[in-house]
Amino acid sequence: MMQGTVMKITEHCIVVLCEDGTFRNLPHPPVMPGLGEKISVPVMAAPAHGNRYMRFLKKQWIYAASLILLLGAVFIFNYLQGAKQPVTFVAVDINPGLELVVNKHGRVDQVNLLNEDAMLLLSGKELENEDVYEALQMIFAQAEQQGYLDPESGKKWIWLSIVGVGEAAYAIDPHKITVQDKSYYVEVFALNEQQREKAQQEQLSLNKYIVKERAAEKGIPLSAEQLRSQSILSSLQEAGVDPLDLFDEGPKTEHIAALDQQVKDSNEDSKAVAEPPARQTSVQQEPILEEDSSANRVQSEAAGNGEIPEDSRRAQGADERNSVASVQQQPGTSAVQAQEEPAAEKTGKSPQAGSQDIVQKLNLEIKLAADGKVKLDYKTKDGKPEAKLERKVKQNQEKQQGPQAVSFAENLIKQLDLNEQSDRKAVQNLLLSALKIEEDGWLELQFEAEYSNGGTLKFQLENPLKAQIKAEEKKQEQERKEQEKANKKAEAQDKNKDKDNEKNNDKYNGNAKGQGEKPQQANKPQQANKPAQSGKKNDKNNDDDDDVD
């Protein structure tokens, strides 16, 4: 027991200041003490502020624990959702190494650049949301343009590894992976998640890992360190191995067969899932009307029961084949677009006006500063795209036509997302950004696009900074001429100096020559000759005297 002084009396308790300096809450005793009176306090009585502080701490701990549990639940949910998302990894090795992350719809969600050459090849953003086959074509075209692929110099190998994660992962069809130049060698491998994990452990790309494993099977030593620092082709050449000997047809055929089976299974699954909704849609979109003929009623009732007469199935099959054929004839249409567009026609939805396949003709000319220009002519002729590209920047001039120019034009059309209602200023900004032209680097822009529906988009723009750019160019030209004039004057002065130096050298050499001859005359016995000369002179004088006499 200890003593305490009553400091406060409330409705529920009394507050006592104890000898140890703490305040304690005590229940009302039978006999109520007065304020300031000393009473006995049991040791087990809890301090007043202590109870309040403990209650506060308990609340804070409860809040913190609830927050942690909530965050943990969100994290686990997101992780499980992410783990369930089916993806397909497509690793590409030329010398640039890339990895495409493809979603279940066959679109590129993410691009991983695996080495410096890949960073120089492209940024990766231009491939996002592209069809995987078109993305691969863009990679091959860019590699050709930058010299990573060149059959004449032996750079003609392309390695691809495909890993599907999840049952609904998009199945890559190896037969759709094509290269314009048929002299290239394209090796395609079907791998699994375990092999991808092993490749990550060794810090190798999927293709380098499978090449290392294949070489080990044939007794060829290839180290992971060597493959990390070099391309596959360079590593094989350094080891004295011909890639044709390493990649025979047997394993390649097995990988192609495995991928073909994946595509077949995927098509069967999609067909099984897609058929029931198609029947329901036909019933909803084509309701039975009283004015319909009896044949139409029978067909509609059969469709409602899930049964379609043979004649109707044939007619529908012919219509579908015709619609698919019409889509395939359009240039630049991907496999995914070919599947989506007939569905859009059935539901009454028109294709998006900004899609690239409706651009039939594109003429573009941009006049750049310093007499530079960019000129692009693109058109489809008999269903085949043609393009010519001309670029002149300062002293460099480049002309392209054929597949490379077509690829450039189609990629540009995708980035512009053109339609008849496109804003001119927006098109201008997208053009300058896509072509990497600075705001003060162009003077005039002429643009004309024609669409398959007969619409056109045509405009001509002039840079507001044109006068300023021209004035700057004129100033630079004047400075250049003045510099040339000063250089010529300096050259003339140098020539005059050279002539003066030559004259001085000749004069100096002449003086030196004269000075060199005098010592030679001084060395001759001139003293012996003098008396003879004087004698002759005396004889002459004597003769003169004789004549006078």
From TrEMBL:
GO terms for cellular component: plasma membrane. Keywords: Cell membrane, Membrane, Transmembrane, Transmembrane helix. Residues 323-337, 518-532 have a biased composition (Polar residues). The chain crosses the membrane at residues 61-80. It comes from the Bacteria. Residues 261-272, 310-322, 382-397, 470-506 have a biased composition (Basic and acidic residues). Residues 2-50 form the RsgI N-terminal anti-sigma domain. InterPro entries: Anti-sigma_RsgI_N, RsgI_M, YusW. Its main location: membrane. It is found in: Cell membrane. Residues 261-356, 382-406, 470-549 are annotated as: Disordered. It is a single-pass membrane protein. This is RsgI N-terminal anti-sigma domain-containing protein.
